[in-house]
Amino acid sequence: MNYRDSLMKWSFSAGVWFATDVYVTYLFPLLTLLFCWRWGITLGMVFGAILFISTLLHEFGHILGARSTGGDGYEIFIWPLGGLASVYPGYSIFSKLFTAASGPLVNLALCVMAFPAVYHSAHYLDTIHPFMFPNVEFASGQISSDLLVLIFKANYILFLVNIMPIYPLDGGRIVQTFLVDRLGRDIGISLTLRTGLYMGIGMMVTGLLLPEQTPGQTVGMVVLIGAILTIFNMQETTQFESDELYDDAFLDYDISTSYASMTSTQTSVKKKPGFFKRWKEKRELKKEKLEQEQIAFEDDQVEILLDKVHKQGLDSLTVAEQHLLDRASSRLRKQRR
Q1: Domain ranges for the chain
Q2: DSSP per residue over 209-221, as a string?
Q3: Which residues form the Peptidase M50 domain (predicted)?
Q4: pLDDT tier at 262 (50, 70, 90 boundaries)?
Q5: Mean pLDDT on 216-222
Q6: pLDDT digit string (tens) for 145-162?
Q7: H helices present in the chain, as ranges
Q8: Burial of residue 286 (number of CB atoms within 10 Å: 0-12, 13-18, 19+)
Q9: Cβ-based neighbours of 272, under 8 Å, separated by 6 or more
Q10: What is the pLDDT of residues 309-331, one digit of tens each?
Q11: What Å distances lie between residue 97 and 69, 121, 160, 330, CA to CA?
Q12: Which of 62, 69, 298, 311 shows its CA 20 to 30 Å from the CA of 227?
């Protein structure tokens, strides 16, 4: 599921921060202009800046979550619904879950920090309502309080949106991790994408059916978010199914040729191995599978590190990253002997 190329066409570089390339989609500045048109230049620009910083911290939460659990991350895309970080979690399921949850946890922490100011503010009800907006005025003596109210609002929105169990939102990634672990990769991914597609359509229908007296910008926001998620999951589902059909074509070919070879050469039925031998073989196969998965994971990490060396030089590698490259090099030398 590679969305990078599509996003790159609609993005501009915001520099390299903490060994991470940051890109911003052109839609985000347009969103800030929309804020200015809706709430005035001062409030629109301030909230746009707060939303950008909060989104950036959210995505760096994912990067830090991955790096702290044996993975890595090297790219961030900022878009109107938040951001998309190119991260590679560690091998364990904990790393995958923690990496996905780290972004919303950053927003939740910022909400907790700003909540006391919100609680004592005159804009309390507008701030905690998902589709209302606190029209703060930055009056003398209330600037810091009003800024905290806007910080809470921005992170509150990001938290609520991203915990929805719809791919590619963080809640959807957490659900996908559980499903893949329990049901296998193909079933887990397919079920996640189809669920996200149906929920996105459901959001659009719900938004259109809301009564006209619904407060705030509820109708427009629900329909917009639902439409974006529907289009994304529709595109990803189509790509996944086409890749699956391509793989199945080779699988059918391999099975047919293997079956023909087996029937032409096999003349006798082998004796079924005993219980302990079967247990030992099963254990060895499981061990071999885990080793292969670990090697595949390290190969992915090596590609990331080589790209990092190409962009930032060999000195940019940490001690752990250098050890990983050494292990990979040693393994390749043994294979060539």
Answers
A1: 4-245, 280-337
A2: HS-TT-STTHHHH
A3: 49-184
A4: very low
A5: 65
A6: 889 999 999 999 999 988
A7: 4-9, 27-39, 41-67, 93-119, 124-128, 143-162, 170-183, 185-209, 218-265, 275-312, 319-336
A8: exposed
A9: none
A10: 777 777 767 766 777 777 777 77
A11: 10, 36, 18, 31
A12: 62
With b for 16 or more beta-carbon neighbours within 10 A and e for fewer, the 135-172 pattern comes to: ebeeeeeeeebbbbbbbbbbbbbbbebbbbbbbbbbbb
**Edge-first strand listing for the sheet containing 11-17:** 11-17, 20-25, 72-79, 82-88
Phi/psi at 70 (5° precision): 95, 0
- The residue among 102, 72, 98 whose CA lies nearest residue 298 is 72
Model pTM greater than 0.70?
Answer: no
How far is C-alpha 46 from the chain's CA centre?
A: 27
Parallel, antiparallel or unpaired: strands 20-25 and 72-79: parallel
Q: How far apart are CA 142 and CA 162, in angstroms?
A: 30
45: exposed, middle or buried (Cβ count in 10 Å: 0-12, 13-18, 19+): middle
Q: Alpha-carbon distance 138 to 129, whole Å?
A: 21
Q: Tokens at residue 46, please? A: 């301030």
Calculate the CA dihedral of residues 22, 25, 28, 30 and round it to 10 degrees.
140
Q: How far apart are CA 51 and CA 152, in angstroms?
A: 10
Q: What does DSSP assign to residue 117?
A: H
